[in-house]
What we know:
- There is one protein chain.
- The chain has one helix at residues 27-34; strands at residues 6-8, 13-20, 40-50, 55-65, 69-78.
- By secondary structure, the protein is mainly beta.
- The chain has one domain.
- Strands 1, 2, 3, 4 and 5 form a five-stranded antiparallel beta sheet that branches.
Amino acid sequence: MAPDDFEILSGIRNIQTIAAGQGVKIVRRLRRKYGAGRWRKMKGVALVREYNGVTYEAEIHWFEAHGIGKRDCKIKRRLA
């Protein structure tokens, strides 16, 4: 599934940091594409709707940096 094939309908909850700084494996690509910052890989749970109208709870992962915001959000697994 492509990253833009879904919409987040609810607030993201149970947010956790998976990796930060140099622990983020693609930090060089993120800096090149979006700019310098303290990049963190995050995960959380939210209600999402796919492009075909199917709605469900899912674990989502994304990258974020202060002043840049959330980038490259993707569904990791379906929960309900």
